[in-house]
């Protein structure tokens, strides 16, 4: 841009932060017929670096489903950050079932069999993974 003497111009700087941390840098403005200027910049990344590759999948990837009919869908997650991230999916109902099953095994095989027969409605695989920087992985969500 060319500025006349005493003229001002607003300059908007946009950044894409790829980690939830504080960033510092310097913006150097080179002036052809004058003194160069350095502007210190700071920005803080917030939120998570894990994003869903298909933004529409975050709303309801299942659509309409009937009960007692198995279905599955795939969701791709991507680590946009600089650091590896560990993803660990937890199904509280499954954890509760395992705890009740362990307790029931001590009380007798009939109760344990009844608990084993209970179905967990949703499962996801893989249950645990490490997403390296800029890596994507497809997760399969199954419902029953």
TrEMBL record:
One of its GO terms (cellular component) is axoneme. Coiled coil: none annotated. One of its GO terms (biological process) is cilium movement. InterPro entries: Hydin-like (IPR033305). It comes from the Eukaryota. This is MSP domain-containing protein. It comes from Pyramimonas obovata.
